[in-house]
């Protein structure tokens, strides 16, 4: 379970759950999920106005269908026969979710140990995953100002073309 920002850095990582568990089940059992449900998460920013607007909105997490609908979690509308307004909402939400998907893609493409089952006991495997995430964040943050980014070059992650189609760039190397 992880939270990533628009710069593809991980803000929260809870490693150690097995892949056969659903995202919703993992969320309900991780520290972030428990804190959001009990409303004891104190580090969320206060609601703030949108850029160039007086409209104040809360900060939220973006999830998929497996996540519960909560005050600070947005998830897509379910179903196939949706109004245009709901289809647009779901589309825009999926664009926001692409940030975390790209963060995972960059992480897995650069740290080959994450591409297959890690042949270690769960405690050590958990430490390997967390170390990869820490190194990923370090490289993402410390290479942002450099002209020639080697860890995550320009257009390394998926991007949106002007006609609203996705240009898939992420290639496992």
Kindly describe this structure.
This protein has four helices and eight strands; from the N terminus they run ββααββββααββ. The protein starts with a strand and ends in a 6-residue tail after the last strand. By secondary structure, it is of the alpha+beta class. The radius of gyration is 18 Å and the shape is globular. A hairpin with a 5-residue loop joins β7 and β8. α1 crosses α2. Helices cover 36% and strands 11% of the residues. The chain has one domain. The model has no long low-confidence stretch (mean pLDDT 84). A two-stranded antiparallel sheet has the order 1-2. It has a two-stranded antiparallel ribbon with strand order 3-4. It has a two-stranded parallel ribbon with strand order 5-6.
| H-E string | EEHHEEEEHHEE
Biggest sheet details? 2 strands, antiparallel
Identify the strand order in the major beta sheet: 1-2
**Uncertain stretches:** none
- What's the end-to-end separation, in Å? 24 Å
The total count of strands amounts to 8
Helix and strand layout, with pairings?
Blueprint (H helix, E strand, L loop, with lengths): L1 E3 L5 E4 L9 H7 L1 H7 L10 E2 L6 E2 L3 E2 L10 E2 L9 H27 L11 H21 L16 E2 L5 E2 L6
Parallel strand pairs: 5-6
Antiparallel strand pairs: 1-2, 3-4, 7-8
Helix pairs in contact: 1-2
Task: Quickly describe the structure.
The protein is α+β, with helices and mostly antiparallel strands and 173 residues long. It is 36% helix and 11% strand. It has a two-stranded antiparallel sheet.
Key traits:
173 residues, alpha+beta, two-stranded antiparallel sheet, two-stranded antiparallel ribbon, 4 helices, 36% helix, nucleus
């Amino acid at each position: 379970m992880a939270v990533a920002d628009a710069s593809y850095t991980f803000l929260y990582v809870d490693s150690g759950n097995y892949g056969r568990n659903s995202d919703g089940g993992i969320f309900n059992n991780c520290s972030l999920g428990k804190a959001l449900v009990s409303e004891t998460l104190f580090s969320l920013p206060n609601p703030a106005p949108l850029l160039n607007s007086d409209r104040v909105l809360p900060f939220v997490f973006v999830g998929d269908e497996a996540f519960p609908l909560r005050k600070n979690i947005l998830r897509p509308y379910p179903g196939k026969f949706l109004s245009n307004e709901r289809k647009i909402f779901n589309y825009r939400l999926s664009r926001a979710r692409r940030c975390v998907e790209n963060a995972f893609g960059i992480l897995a493409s650069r740290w080959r140990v994450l591409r297959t089952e890690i042949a270690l006991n769960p405690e050590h495997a958990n430490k390997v995953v967390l170390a990869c995430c820490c190194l990923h964040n370090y490289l993402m943050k410390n290479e942002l100002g450099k002209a020639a980014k080697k860890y995550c070059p320009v257009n390394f992650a998926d991007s949106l073309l002007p006609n609203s189609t996705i240009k898939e760039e992420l290639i496992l190397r």
